[in-house]
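The freezer alarm interrupted the setup, so I double-checked each line after restarting. Inputs confirmed:
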Amino acid sequence: MSIRHHLDDATLLAYAAGSLSEGMSLLVASHIDRCAHCQERLQQAEAVGGALLEELAPVALAPDALEQVLALLDTDAGAADVQPVVARAPLLDSQIPAPLAHYLDKPLDELEWRTLVPGVRQLDLRLGGPGATRLLRIAPGLSVPHHSHRGNELTLILRGSYSDELGRFQAGDVADLDEQVSHQPISDSGEDCICLIATDAPLRFSGLMGRLVQPFIGL
Ligand SMILES: [Zn+2]
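Predicted 3D structure, all chains:
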């Protein structure tokens, strides 16, 4: 998998700090699962976060703090707990990254897709929160109405590809967009384009067509 489009620094730092929504964290984890470049950058982001913590003013310790720690070491309470092994969900479909597999019970082609408009189907993961997390399946050659964002939008391509003003996005690529970006993606391969999309606020369609269909497709 040759990945050309990556997460931006702000997103990686927010992920490392644990401040992203569940849907956005899921998407970031799903990209990182397949991207050695972002795995390395995440380690750097975590190191930066650790260094920042060390800069914080030290908290005054109780006079008997050392004694307390030593007492703890003498008991079993100080022993490291055995970490439970987190089971990896069974791999249903090689195009579903491992973190996402926890949320899906079927391969991509067998999911209960709901048609929004002809050629566009979706599956809402219903994670709650202010934004939405969904899988979108777009027929080849179809365009999503031109839109900008009130917040951030993360898109991870699972199958096929699309192009917009920013370039061509293929399986594994992530589009990390903030509210400055307005775009009109067009699926451009010979197969459906399936992507995972997480937003932290609803989209804002700019064209008349987009504004007309928005109430129906709920994007
Ligand atoms: Zn990456």
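Quick read of the result. The pocket of zinc ion is lined by residues 3, 6-7, 31, 35, 37-38 (CB under 6 Å).
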